[in-house]
Write a structure and sequence with these properties.
Order of helices and strands of chain B: HHHHHHHHHHHHHEHEEHHHEHEHEH
Shape of chain A: elongated
Oligomer: heterodimer
Distance between the termini of chain A: 48 Å
Protein name (chain B): VWA domain-containing protein
Strand content of chain A: 5-15%
Number of strands of chain B: 6
CATH superfamily of the largest domain in chain A: P-loop containing nucleotide triphosphate hydrolases
Structural class of chain A: alpha/beta
CATH architecture of the largest domain in chain A: 3-Layer(aba) Sandwich
Organism (chain A): Alcanivorax profundi
Largest sheet of chain A: 5 strands, parallel
Organism (chain B): Alcanivorax profundi
Radius of gyration of chain A: 26 Å
Helix content of chain A: 40-55%
Number of domains of chain B: 3
Protein name (chain A): MoxR family ATPase
Number of helices of chain A: 15
Pfam families (chain B): VWA_CoxE
Shape of chain B: elongated
């Protein structure tokens, strides 16, 4: 991992090199997180590049990215560690004879128990431990970037369980004791605001809100990601997407949708937005029938007003 | 900029309603130390990343930030308007008079607008404005500020001159006028400081008043909507719906057994039966006759703001007539909706008996053991048949009936009120006369819903 980050500009330019164009505020949040050793809670509407940010940060820091996807009912055994029950059983089966011979010369139950007790630890050792993402991040030999994706989907208990990790970078496991991070990972949490996160969690994190990008920024993003797209068409496309975001849509188009659309237009060899073209490809941008219908109705008016430049 | 300015800023943010812990404050300081003070945008971003933890606080942060730090540049003389208004006093007084005056006044009078602002800013920096709490303190602080600038000497001079000859009196008038302008500038500065520091205390005071005042007087407060939203948000996060309950409850034998096959019949992993998500339904019946319409407005507003926690709310209103108003509230903002409902249903002469009948006819099929019925009204039945039997019928079908009465408990049976007849069928009955009562009642309601599943 890179141990020294020169400046915020350093981050911006490195991200740009990877095709992740971001505002300075985003870069500043990463800079502060790395410098202050604090987790960052990234919020924003879906599709604005929250997960991409973690990938870009891991590439920038030259650190492995460890990802934990949260979902309803996620618990410690999925997030932290689990014992390899199958392997444990298999080993006891295979070692049955061996164990039998070992215990053969003991004469009382207590003595056998005592001898087994000496062995007991063997079955709860690292050999049988299946580390899950959180433990991986803590025990990683080099500092890692830990992405806890969509934390709002996990239950409240899990959120509370994370608090220890987020503030002290350590976690308590009953069988193994407290595991402290070898190297402090850079932790990024993302949330889509499905439910309100607890104050305790928010207090431990820096907070970054990524909104839909401004036209200039979005235009830059498209040109970085889909360089084949003609400049004039790009501006038209971005203007149309920005216009759609002002409408009363069920699901607003995000950057990822803009990019999909741009790629589709490149494939179709389009050179300007025409009524038929947009009508045919609109379902790449808008994901519900209601929105598509609304956009179709709005389209002629928009083309008359802004389309011809 | 010293740490003091930053901690003053944080106090101002707290005053504006943000919750900032000491830990967050120290993070903000560390962050600022890292990025430096030079780039304004970056300074702003560093503070916003460390201090603003919820998007609804963003606006308050931006206002406080610009008030706090823009005010600072204005004080230092960048503000053209203020610089114009106070020129140097030396130009309005003859030079020989000026020469007779003591040195410290001379420097004050000779100062041009920028230097004067500078002196004022220096004097202000030495003072502690964070103790300012109420609006009437502004005068006191302005006076203190002027004194520490050395304006006391000017006052003496004015008095001296006004006792002298006619020319001297004219000069005294001019000097007085100049002093007035300086005072104006100083009071502007103090006002800005008050907006930053004093409003926090004032807001708290206002909030407490708003919570305790009777509903019918609440109209006079402008911020009541924001307060209701805030209270609802707090309750919602307290009573968040648990999405799934695994790892407790009843064991799912089938899944545990089939899972154990992998491990040679050893049930290494236990599976639990998933609880179906809660289906609580709330039905609110509000009396909207003139005496009770205000509490109804707030109750409905509250319940609809809790949409996250209570997805299924159906609301009904009655005065002289009874009708469902769910649509109005889902389509319009509470204020508009209440207006529409009142237009449609208002009238005098509430008849609870008939209302229960109408409710029963309309909703009989939907009443089940997941339903909670809340009635908001004063139980003043105008000596009509009270229909307690119908309420009993409803009670038998639903999980619980709650009654919220806007009057004090002692009034529940006075005059034509017949609360006693209804009480046996209500699991809980509370007074609901102000926002505090309402919050408490809704809190208990959410708790009772949570326990059941």
């Amino acid at each position: 991992m890179k141990t020294r980050i020169e400046s915020v500009e350093d981050i911006v330019s490195s991200f740009a090199g990877q095709g992740y164009i971001c505002s300075e505020q985003v870069a500043l949040a990463i800079y502060l997180a790395a410098q202050l050793n604090k987790p960052v809670l990234v919020e924003g509407p879906p599709g604005v590049g929250k997960t991409e940010l973690a990938k870009a940060a891991s590439a920038f820091l030259v650190a492995p990215l460890i990802r934990l996807q949260c979902y309803e009912g996620l618990d410690e055994s999925r997030a932290l560690y689990e014992w390899k029950y199958g392997k444990q059983l298999l080993y006891t089966q295979l070692l049955r004879d061996k164990l039998g011979s070992m215990l053969a010369d003991t004469d009382s139950l207590d003595a056998s128990m005592a001898r087994l007790g000496d062995l007991g630890e063997a079955f709860y050792s690292d050999t049988f431990l299946e580390p899950r993402p959180l433990l991986q991040a803590l025990r990683s030999d080099e500092p890692a970037v830990l992405l806890i994706d969509e934390i709002d989907k996990a239950d409240q208990e899990f959120e509370a369980f994370l608090l220890e990790l987020l503030s002290d970078f350590q976690i308590s496991i009953p069988e193994l004791g407290t595991v402290r991070a070898k190297h402090q990972p850079l932790v990024l949490l993302t949330s889509n605001d499905q439910r309100e996160l607890s104050d305790a969690l928010k207090r431990r994190c820096l907070h970054l809100y990524i909104p839909y990008p401004a036209p200039e920024l979005e235009s830059q993003i498209v040109s970085a990601r889909v360089p084949e797209l003609d400049g004039q068409l790009r501006d038209q496309l971005v203007a149309f997407i920005q216009y759609l975001r002002e409408q009363d849509m069920k699901k607003l188009p995000a950057i990822s949708e803009t990019l999909d659309w741009a790629r589709a237009l490149v494939l179709l060899h389009a050179d300007s937005l025409s009524q038929e073209l947009v009508a045919d490809t609109l379902n790449l941008v808008l994901k519900t029938e209601q929105d598509v219908t609304l956009a179709r109705e709005l389209l002629p008016g928009w083309l008359r007003k802004f389309g011809k430049r | 900029m010293p740490v003091r300015r930053l901690s003053e800023f944080i106090r101002a943010l707290r005053g504006a309603g943000l919750r900032i812990s000491p830990d967050e404050a120290s993070q903000a300081m560390e962050a600022v130390a890292l990025v430096g003070y030079e780039g304004r945008a970056r300074f702003h971003d560093a503070l916003s990343v460390t201090l603003v933890k919820a998007e609804q606080d963003r606006l308050a942060f931006e206002t406080t930030f610009s008030r706090f730090f823009d005010g600072e540049t204005a004080e230092q003389g960048a503000d053209g308007r203020e610089s114009d208004s106070v020129g140097d006093a030396a130009s309005i007084l003859p030079a020989d008079l000026l020469a007779q005056m003591p040195d410290e006044i001379q420097s004050l009078l000779n100062a041009d607008a920028n230097a004067l602002s500078q002196t004022m800013a220096e004097a202000a920096a030495a003072m502690n404005f964070t103790d300012m709490q109420v609006i009437t303190q502004q005068g006191l602080y302005t006076r203190r500020l002027l004194m520490s600038m050395g304006m006391g000497a000017v006052d003496d001079q004015v008095i001296q001159l006004s006792q002298g000859s006619a020319t001297q009196q004219a000069q005294a008038d001019q000097l007085r006028e100049w002093r007035g302008r300086v005072r104006e500038q100083a009071s502007g500065l103090v006002r800005r400081q008050f907006l930053l520091h004093g409003t926090g205390y004032g807001r708290e005071l206002r909030e407490q008043t708003m919570r305790a005042v009777a509903f019918r007087d609440l109209r006079e407060f402008r911020e009541v909507q924001a307060l209701v939203r805030k209270m609802a948000r707090r309750l919602a996060s307290l009573h968040q719906r648990r999405l799934k309950r695994s790892r407790r409850g009843r064991l799912d034998g089938r899944r545990t057994l089939s899972g154990s096959l992998r491990h040679d019949g050893v049930p290494a992993q236990l599976h639990w039966q998933q609880m179906p998500p809660r289906k609580s339904r709330i039905m609110v019946i509000c009396d909207v006759s003139s005496s009770v319409s205000e509490p109804a407005r707030f109750l409905l507003q509250f319940l609809y703001a809790l949409n996250d926690v209570l997805p299924q709310v159906r609301s009904f209103a009655f005065a002289s007539r009874f009708d469902e108003v769910t649509e109005d509230f889902s389509r319009y903002s509470p204020d508009v909706a209440v207006g529409r409902v009142l237009d449609r249903l208002s009238g005098s002469g509430t008849d609870y008996g008939q209302m229960f009948e109408a409710f029963w006819r309309r909703c009989e099929r939907q009443l089940d053991r997941h339903t909670t019925v809340i009635i908001l009204g004063d139980a003043r039945n105008n000596a009509l048949p009270e229909g307690a039997q119908t309420l009993a019928q409803i009670r038998r079908r639903v999980r619980q009936v709650w009654w919220l009465n806007p009057e004090a408990r002692s009034q529940w049976n006075s005059g034509d009120a017949v609360m006693d007849r209804y009480l046996p069928y209500c699991r809980e009955a509370h007074r609901c006369a102000n926002l505090n009562d309402l919050e408490r009642a809704v809190d208990r309601l959410l708790l009772s819903l949570k326990r059941s599943d």
